[in-house]
DNA sequence: TAAACAAATTGATACGGTCCAATTGTCTAA
DNA sequence: TTAGACAATTGGACCGTATCAATTTGTTTA
């Protein structure tokens, strides 16, 4: 994984950018980089185009390749790079202690919507996992997830009380894609109780469908977040590449 | 623009997918496509990789390329493709009538945060444009935008009462990238008045920094949305390409 | 019949070449 | 002095090839 040429170039450039090796905010041209690294120009292009998609650099034909000044100026807002899909891991990386309290754990027939989202048939069953997520012992999110039993037939109460994504990895299944939808709503009585919210305080809603590597939809998840913990950052590019 | 080979292939494949030309959810292999379209395999790969990033298809080495079942089953949630950055255009595409009411229009010195976001120096001035956005005559969003005067020296009250992005296009400046941050908050008294909200109803906050094609940060915008209108959808992939 | 192996299929990586398009700087002519 | 022509630089598009790796399929073997 770490030996791919374009990834090496990508990583090295990222590193050099962080080291402020290009104070004039301008990278060497592609042909020079190709020669300097001893790789083909195609590989350099590939590395650069990934960095551009991540918002680190901007390419301008006829002029050169430049570092996004914002990326250097305010690194905190740019935490997007290498973003994590799983909640547990995202938290850990912040150096805080994540916690999980299992609220309920059932097997139920999939309703119409879930059938559609998870590509199931009439009569298929799913786990319904309702969990309260904690952050340094403070509850911040109510999560209701649905997972087809035929994809993970061995889910136990113990497994589900920990990170499901970590469990999956141990089964050689990797979640690398997801479709997310973000909304806001007034809090319900249950929200207020579980998340310690005042009546005027809202919840953020994140609904996600998570996919395995091969495109199989694996889980639909409905997350109700304490509003102060919802902060979704993303770099949007309309280049369609 | 429309004559690029990989875009033609991409568009044609997208079209054929919509026409349900691949009922077995499987696309022809890359080599066949290359031959059928009379283009190189590289171009086919490029087209396919864009479609994969958009979540339309999944590629599986050694097996083939498959259509994301969700993409066909529920097209409404997948409106992401070809997403629009500008508010006005996004609305129009929905077949509804967008409206703008100018609340205030001033030139003010950029504060520290704006200086940082827009890469300005101490003492630089920016337009401060506060507008109420309407949707079929119903207010749904309060937008406060800041634009450096040195980038758009000729902004007039009339210009600003219409779509700024459309104005930019007429000046041959294109906005293709943005950095967005999404949050939720209880509504303030002003929110409640302008957006017709009850006290318990929240607002969605979208903050965005918009970039011109060459990477120049062009505008910071703070958008307070009626919570029922905040619905941000996105396809997330951890492949880093 | 089932397991092991071999071959064909299919996408991934990487190279290097050709030509094009946008930008910038320079030189020239009015 | 300035406007326009020209050349050099730099990224973009596209092609074709070679090789590798994962998966599936077919065949052989125990």
Number of helices of chain A: 9
Q: Topology as H/E string of chain A?
A: HEHHEEHHEHEEHHEHEEE
Estimated helix fraction of chain A = 25-40%
Question: Quick one: how many beta strands of chain A?
Answer: 10
Question: Which pair of chains has the greatest number of interface residues, and how are they split between the two chains?
Answer: A-B, 60 and 61 residues
Radius of gyration of chain A: 22 Å
* Distance, first to last CA of chain A: 22 Å
Assembly category:
homodimer
Strand proportion of chain A, as a percent range, falls in 25-35%
Structural class of chain A: alpha+beta
Q: Are there runs of chain A of 5+ residues with pLDDT below 50, and where?
A: 76-83
Q: What strand order characterises the main sheet of chain A?
A: 4-5-6-9-8-7
What is the overall pLDDT average of chain A? 86
Describe the structure.
Two copies of one chain form a homodimer. With 241 residues, chain A is α+β, with helices and mostly antiparallel strands. In chain A, 30% of the residues lie in helices and 34% in strands. Chain A contains nine helices and ten strands. In chain A, strands 4-5-6-9-8-7 form a six-stranded antiparallel β-sheet. A three-stranded antiparallel β-sheet of chain A has the order 1-3-2. In chain A, a hairpin with a 2-residue loop joins strand 5 and strand 6. In chain A, helix 1 packs across helix 3 and helix 2 crosses helix 3. About 3% of the residues of chain A have low confidence. At the A-B interface, helix 3, strand 2, helix 4, strand 7 and strand 8 of A face helix 3, helix 4, strand 7, strand 8 and strand 10 of B. Strand 10 of chain A pairs antiparallel with strand 7 of chain B, so a sheet runs across the interface. Chain A binds a DNA duplex (30 and 30 nucleotides) through helix 3.
């Amino acid at each position: 994984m770490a030996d791919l040429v374009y990834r090496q170039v990508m990583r090295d450039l990222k590193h050099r950018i962080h080291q402020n090796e290009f104070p004039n905010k301008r990278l060497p041209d592609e042909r020079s980089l190709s020669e300097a690294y001893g790789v083909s120009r195609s590989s350099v292009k590939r590395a650069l185009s990934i960095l551009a998609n991540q918002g680190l650099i901007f390419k301008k034909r006829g002029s050169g390749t430049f570092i996004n000044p914002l990326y250097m100026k305010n690194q905190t807002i740019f935490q997007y790079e290498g973003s994590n899909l799983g909640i547990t891991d995202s938290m850990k990386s912040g150096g805080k202690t994540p916690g999980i309290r299992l609220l309920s754990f059932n097997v139920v027939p999939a309703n119409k919507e879930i059938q559609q989202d998870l590509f199931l048939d009439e009569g298929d069953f799913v786990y319904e996992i309702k969990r309260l997520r904690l952050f340094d012992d403070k509850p911040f999110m109510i999560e209701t997830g649905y997972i087809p039993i035929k994809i993970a037939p061995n889910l136990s109460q113990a497994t589900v009380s920990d990170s499901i994504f970590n469990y999956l990895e141990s089964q050689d299944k990797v979640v690398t894609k997801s479709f997310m939808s973000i909304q806001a709503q007034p809090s319900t009585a249950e929200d207020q109780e579980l998340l310690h919210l005042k009546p005027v305080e809202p919840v953020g809603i994140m609904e996600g469908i998570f996919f395995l590597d091969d495109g199989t939809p694996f889980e639909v998840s409905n997350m109700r977040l304490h509003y102060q913990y919802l902060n979704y950052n993303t770099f949007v590019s309309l280049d369609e590449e």
